[in-house]
């Protein structure tokens, strides 16, 4: 027990208060927004610190929603995320570097069965006992091996991702 207090704890991501959101440019006019449920995750947080030493998360790709049932069905299909074959996305941190108001986290992201390196910029609010993390990054949707489809030219390639993470 004393070792956990000194070394810190591995905290679970609070799935109720945490969110993964994305935005994709669409037809050069507006963005399509959506969410992907966080299935599980953990944050290794040293005692008294708001900067973790390791982070892991799993998202439920089958729960992806954009608010449009037809678009959601297309995104779940084999031309896009193929959620029948790849029902989960995962992230594992490989390096965390403190920065102003937070940290920069490098890691490996698995979407569509393809692992890619990604960097997430995280701002931390709250105190060491109740930190709240807001991470942002942009991912290249083509880097994850999805097929190009006829509508590809009018759908932006960079996907903006925002993660809002609370811990239990």
Write the layout of secondary structure elements.
Layout: H1 2-7, E1 9-12, E2 19-26, E3 30-36, E4 38-45, E5 54-60, H2 69-76, E6 88-99, E7 102-111, E8 114-125, E9 132-140, E10 158-166
Antiparallel strand pairs: 1-4, 2-3, 2-10, 4-5, 5-6, 6-7, 7-8, 8-9, 9-10
Question: How many domains, in number, for the residues?
Answer: 1
- The CATH topology label is Lipocalin
| Strand order within the widest beta sheet | 1-4-5-6-7-8-9-10-2-3
Helix-strand pattern: HEEEEEHEEEEE
Number of continuous helical runs? 2
Radius of gyration: 17 Å
CATH-defined architecture: Beta Barrel
Helical content band: under 10%
| N- to C-terminal distance | 18 Å
CATH evolutionary superfamily: Lipid/polyisoprenoid-binding, YceI-like
Q: Helices and strands: which structural class? A: mainly beta
Question: How many individual β-strands?
Answer: 10
State the shape.
elongated
Quick overview of this protein structure:
The chain is mainly beta.
Q: What would you note in describing this structure?
A:
The chain has a single domain (2-166), classed as Lipid/polyisoprenoid-binding, YceI-like (Lipocalin), CATH 2.40.128.110. The protein is 8% helix and 51% strand. It is mainly beta and 168 residues long. The chain is elongated, with a radius of gyration of 17 Å. The longest helix is centred in the middle third of the chain and has 8 residues, at 69-76. The chain has helices at 2-7, 69-76; strands spanning 9-12, 19-26, 30-36, 38-45, 54-60, 88-99, 102-111, 114-125, 132-140, 158-166.
């Amino acid at each position: 027990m004393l070792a956990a207090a000194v070394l810190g704890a591995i905290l679970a991501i609070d799935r109720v208060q945490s969110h993964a959101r994305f935005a994709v440019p669409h037809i050069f006019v507006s963005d399509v927004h959506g969410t992907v449920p966080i299935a599980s995750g953990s944050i290794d947080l040293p005692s008294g610190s708001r900067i973790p030493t390791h982070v892991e998360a799993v998202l439920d790709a089958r729960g992806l929603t954009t608010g449009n049932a037809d678009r959601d069905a297309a995104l779940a299909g084999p031309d896009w995320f193929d959620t029948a074959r790849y029902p989960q996305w995962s992230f594992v941190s490989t390096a965390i570097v403190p920065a102003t108001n937070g940290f920069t986290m490098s890691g490996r992201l698995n979407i569509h069965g393809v692992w890619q390196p990604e960097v997430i910029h995280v701002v931390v609010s709250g105190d060491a006992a109740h930190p709240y993390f807001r991470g942002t990054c942009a991912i290249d949707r083509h880097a994850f091996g999805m097929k190009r489809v006829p509508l590809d030219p009018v759908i932006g390639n960079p996907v903006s991702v925002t993660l809002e993470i609370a811990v239990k």
